[in-house]
Amino acid sequence: PEATELAVLSQCHGKEVVQYTVLNYYWGDVAFFKTTPSNIEDMKMGFTAENACKPHCDAIWLVHKLGLEWIWTNQPCII
After folding, report:
1. Which domain holds residue 38?
2. HSE of 49, CA atoms in CB hemisphere, 13 A
3. What sign results for the dihedral spanned by CA atoms 19, 25, 36, 58?
4. SS (H, E, C) 15-68
5. Could you tell me which of 72, 66, 57 has the C-alpha nearest to residue 21?
6. CA–CA gap between residue 59 and residue 14 (Å, rounded)
7. Which residues of 30-68 are buried (b: 16+ CB within 10 A; e: fewer)?
8. SS3 9
9. Distance CA 8, CA 79 (A)
């Protein structure tokens, strides 16, 4: 399955309780899909499957199929 829907990086400030799932992983020192201080504003505007790696796309697709709206993943969510 392909996740081609637009996803966005969103910051939470602890005021709203939401259900989310977690994709926790370690792929070594590879930093191919990572949020940095220089690209955080772009990540907040959104990204497509072409910008993300396949495991992230698959995870986003699965989260949507499960009826959840939010996913926390290591590299895109940790700056």
Report:
1. 1-10+32-79
2. 12
3. negative
4. CCCCCEEEECCCCCCCCCCCCCCCCHHHHHHCECCCCCCHHHHHHHHHHHHCCC
5. 72
6. 24
7. eeebebeeeeeeebeeebebeebeeebbbbbbebeeeee
8. coil
9. 15
Distance of alpha carbon 34 from alpha carbon 32, whole angstroms: 6
Residues making up the chain, counted from first to last: 79
The pTM is what?
A: 0.67
How many domains does the chain divide into?
A: 1
Instruction: Give the residue among 46, 20, 55, 51 at the shortest CA–CA distance from 33.
Output: 51
pLDDT digits (tens, 9 = 90+) for 29-73: 656 677 888 888 887 887 777 777 788 888 888 888 988 888 887
Q: Is residue 16 part of a domain?
A: no
DSSP 5: S
Q: What does the radius of gyration of the chain's CA atoms come to, in whole angstroms?
A: 12
